[in-house]
Design goal:
The chain has 351 residues and is of the alpha/beta class. The chain is 33% helix and 24% strand. It folds into two domains: 7-237, Rossmann fold (3-Layer(aba) Sandwich), CATH 3.40.50.300; 253-349, Hypothetical Protein Yjia, Chain: A,domain 2, CATH 3.30.1220.10. It starts with 6 loop residues before the first strand and ends with a helix.
Length: 351
């Protein structure tokens, strides 16, 4: 009996809010008959990304082919979570033609790629490519160093200063593992700033990696799928700041979920969220909200102080309309202050 061909897997990595889910949604909607399956990893127990992708309603990627792994990080729980999820997808009939794995924004991709070198996995799967999605505007604003000029001065004055910024290390590791780098949200930059970001990234990685620019995650799936990288075979070419470690944790970050009552004025909430993100150095906010008198669910997403909101689909019959927002920040974020500010704002906005 002829053995089945290996199923290609694309790992989509990228820092918080880079646009991974938006790009994957575009792939799903333009699959051209290719049977897709997804493994979605998120922080927090509100499956925002998985719910966005399920709302596509595309036959090539039915709901049962979308697996969510929440409250954890795939790079830390490969054996416990990822491998069983993949085995369940491979057991489906018909078997997926291609599997896409969306890691959380704080995940390191290399430990996940290493799992594909395990004999039981290698026989059935191959890493077609690691795609790193970059928020070009955030990088241009220096969102991956606390204070780039201060850090550079410290390193110049003291050779013992190490690369110790957790945010920057995560971002660096995602780029260093990539086979393709997507500069998303390129429309938010002028040509000079975009060229600067592209040059900085190209100069920071030790091997030639294609870099493409886009907006709203819109890229032809032919560019993203079919890279044939077999990344599990060249782990040595993908250096990591954490190569000497057994694993890594996320003790430098906190995440929590806030309940939000029905709104009358989403713009007013966005103004308050923007202020909170600036004052508390919030990295990411995302979730779903109810707007009074509207039959559709409001999707709210924020990266730093940049927010977007849109009605994504009608509320379903019997579905809970309780608004919930996932907030992700650096360790020590004052949850009580954030929650109190939002409670005061939503109470006055809905009075």
């Amino acid at each position: 009996m002829t053995p089945l061909a290996k199923v290609p897997v694309t790992i989509v990595t990228g820092f918080l809010g880079a646009g991974k889910t938006t790009m994957i949604r575009h792939i799903i909607e333009h699959a051209a008959g290719r049977r897709l399956a997804l493994v979605i990893n998120e922080f927090g127990d509100v499956g925002v990304d998985g719910d966005i992708l399920r709302s596509c309603g595309v036959a090539d990627c039915p709901d049962e082919n979308i697996v969510e792994l929440a409250n954890g990080c795939l790079c830390c729980t490969v054996a416990d979570d990822f491998v069983p999820a993949i085995e369940a997808l491979l057991a489906r009939t018909p078997r997926p033609d291609h599997i896409i794995v969306e890691t959380s924004g704080l995940a390191l991709p290399k430990p996940l790629v290493k799992a594909f070198d395990w004999p039981a996995v290698r026989a059935r799967l191959t890493v077609d490519g690691v795609v790193a999605v970059v928020d070009a505007a955030a990088v241009a604003d220096g969102r991956f160093a606390d204070d780039p000029e201060k850090l550079a001065a410290q390193r110049a004055a003291d050779g013992s200063v190490d690369h110790d910024n957790p945010l920057e290390e995560v971002y660096d590791d995602q780029l260093l593992c990539a086979d393709l780098i997507v500069l998303n949200k390129a429309d938010l930059l002028d040509e000079a700033d975009l060229a600067r970001v592209r040059a900085e990234i190209a100069g920071a990685i030790p091997r030639a990696v294609k870099i493409v620019s886009t907006r709203d995650g819109v890229l032809d799936p032919a560019i993203l799928l079919g890279l044939d990288a077999a990344a599990e075979d060249d782990l040595g070419a993908r250096p990591s700041h954490h190569d000497a470690e057994e694993g890594h944790d996320h003790d430098d970050f906190d995440s929590f979920v806030l309940a939000i009552p029905a709104l009358d004025d989403p713009a007013r909430l966005v103004k308050r969220l923007t202020d909170l993100a600036a004052r508390h150095d919030i990295l990411r906010i995302k979730g779903f909200l109810e707007v009074r008198g509207k039959p559709m669910r409001l999707l709210m997403q924020g990266v730093g102080t940049r927010f977007r909101h849109q009605f994504d689909r009608p509320w379903r019959a019997g579905e809970s309309r309780q608004g919930r927002l996932v907030v992700i920040g650096q360790k020590g974020i004052d949850r009580a202050a954030v929650e109190a500010a939002l409670v005061d704002e939503t109470a006055s906005a809905t009075a």
